[in-house]
Task: structure prediction
Amino acid sequence: MFGKATAVALAGLGLVISVMPAGAAISVLNGALANSCYQAAQYGGSAIEGIRLCSLALGEGALTTRDRAATYINLGIVRARGNDAEGALDSYNRGLAIDASLGEGYVDRGAVQITLKNYQAAIADITKGIELNANEPEIAYYDRAIANEAVGNIRDAYIDYKKAVEIRPDFALAKDQLSRFKVVR
Result:
C-alpha cells in the first residue's frame, strides 16, 4: 500500500498535513542486490539495512543504465524513510541524472522537497512526475496539493486533492484534506 507519511506543518495556515512519499519503488530487471534494494524500498523494513543493500547494489557491474538509475531512486526512498532528506535528495538527483524518464523519481524528490520546505521545487518535480505517468498518480496529486497549499495556491490545492480522490476514492488522507474546503461560486 502506501509508505510512511511525513507530517509537515504549513506555515501561516495552522495545519499539519501528512506528505506521502510516492513509495512506488522502481523494479529492476538485473542484479540480485538491486532487486533486494527494490524490495526494501517498496515494502519497507529497516532503513539502515535498505541503505546497505542499495549501496551494495550500486556496486554491481551488471546493472543496465535504467536499473542503475532505478536503484538510486530506490535508495532515495529508503533514505527518506530513514529521515535523511538531504541524502534522499542526492540519491534522487543521481538517479534522474542517469535516466530522466523515471516519473516516480520526480514525485519522490518532490515529496522530499516538501519536507525541506522547497515548495516551488516540489510543485515542479511532482508536475514532471505526473507528466511522465508516475505509477501512483493519486499520491503525486496529493503531495502537489500540499505544496500548492503551502505557497497559497488554494484553488490548485483543491483541484489536486479532488483529483487524488477521483483516482482513488478510498484515499482517506486526500478525502480528509478535501473536506476542509468550502467551494464558493
Notes: Residues 65-81 form the longest helix (17 residues). The chain has nine helices and two strands. The chain has a mean pLDDT of 87. The first strand starts at residue 6 and ends at 10.
